[in-house]
Structure formats: C-alpha cells, structure tokens
Specification:
With 246 residues, this protein is mostly helical. It is built from 11 helices and no strands. It has one domain.
C-alpha cells in the first residue's frame, strides 16, 4: 500500500478534531480519499461513514454538557431527523449543483451571524434558554442541507444555536455535535443501501476520526470559550474563501 493510500487514516484524525468544534473536516478527508484513488461518489459515501463515527466521539466528549441540555435536544433532534431524511431523498433524486452554488453564501452568512451573535444577544433582555420557532424552522432547513450535501453544516448550526441563550459556547457546541450525529446517521442510510461505501478505508478512518473527535472535544472543553469561538470563525472564513474560489 502506497503513502497516498495511508493518507486518509491520518487526515481523518485532524478532520475529527475540526468537526468537534466547528466542522469542515470533510474538506481535508474527502480530498485525501480522492488522492488514494477512491472514485468521487464512493469517496463521498466513505467519508460520510467515517466522519459520522468521529461525530459520535465529539458528542461523547461533550457528555457533561449534553446531559445539562437534555430538555433542549428533543425539538431540534426531531426537526433534524425529518430534515435529514428529506435531504437524503433529494440527494438520490436531484443534482447537487444548486446546493454547491449556495455553499459559499451560506457559509459567509453563517460565519458573520455567529461572529456577531454575542453582541446581538446583549441587546435582548434576559430570557429562558429555549429555541425560538424561527430557529426550529432554520434547523429543519439546515438538516435538509446536511442530508443532501452537508459541507459547513456545523457552522450553520452554531449560528442558529447562538441565539438560544446557552450558558456557554461548549453547551451550544455539545448540542451541535449531537445533531450532527443524528443528521449524518440518517443521511448515511442511502449510501449503505446503495453499497457505495469503501469499507477498506471507512473502517480505519472511522477509528482515527473517533479518536480525533473525542480528543478535540476534551481539548476545547478545557480552553477558554473565546478560543473555541475564534476557531469556529477562522474555520468559517477559510471554508468560505475556499468555496468562493472553486
């Protein structure tokens, strides 16, 4: 096995770390699979399978925050599962061109909203921590997008969740990671049914992505929140530039 064939395993660890705090890990792991010689469609499915396991590691790493926010998970989980199912069906039946054209604009908007959300929230009177109806509607649309394509989904979800009133960035990120597990897990079903996952790469990548997701969650839980927020913004800006240049 040549070096390019081993590349996805190592890259998946870094992708798991990235996804634990913001997202965008696929921008590393998907090209690594292409470089290893996996056809594009199979690479997309294989990457989704591997990083889904990494998302589980991220969610597990934020277990204390997840327990604290249990009552807020039910409504957003429900709309996320429905949206992901719809997105997976769209993936089978329609081309991805429209969504691909929307990605840089969605990422730009989400990054700006996330960056300014603390200042916008300071203008509001203190209120109970809850999801507004518009947030549930927006999460439904993001879940459809996640089931269909999913690039930058984490940034979009953090932008929406930033208005819920969570006590810390880690709390919002914990909820985001659980939603990522649900959305990507549902969207994975069509790939398994179609038999387009290359398990030779998916299994070892899943192991390293799981380790990266868990390690990233523990790292960012222990850092001051400003580091997590800045990391999200930097990744969001970088992803936006990459997609505008494509």
């Amino acid at each position: 096995m040549n070096a390019s064939a081993l590349l996805p395993d190592g890259v998946a660890f870094v992708a798991g770390v990235m996804n634990s705090v913001a997202g965008g890990g696929s921008f590393l792991s998907f090209p690594a699979l292409i470089a290893a010689g996996v056809p594009a469609i199979h690479a997309n499915a294989t990457n989704s399978a591997a990083l889904w396991v990494g998302n589980i590691g991220s969610a597990r790493g934020y277990a204390p925050e997840v327990r604290e926010q249990r009552r807020l998970l039910a409504p957003v989980l429900a709309v996320s599962v429905i949206g992901a199912l719809a997105g997976a069906i769209l993936l089978i039946r329609t081309p991805a061109l429209l969504f691909e054209r929307m990605i840089p604009w969605l990422l730009l908007f989400a990054t700006i909203v996330f960056a300014v959300s603390p200042f916008l929230r300071r203008r509001r009177a203190a209120a109970a921590v809850r999801h507004a109806p518009w947030q549930l509607a927006a999460q439904l649309l993001v879940a459809v997008y996640g089931g269909y394509f999913g690039a930058g989904m984490g940034i979009l979800m953090l932008a929406i969740l930033s208005f819920t009133g969570f006590p810390t960035f880690n709390a919002a990120n914990a909820v985001k990671n659980v939603l990522s597990v649900a959305i990507n897990g549902v969207a994975l079903v069509p790939f398994i049914v179609a038999g387009i996952i290359d398990w030779r790469y998916a299994i070892p990548m899943a192991v390293t992505a799981l380790a990266g997701g868990y390690a990233g969650a523990h790292l960012f839980r222990r850092l001051p929140p400003i580091y997590g927020r800045c990391t999200v913004i930097v990744i969001g800006v970088a992803m936006t530039i990459v997609f505008f240049r494509r």
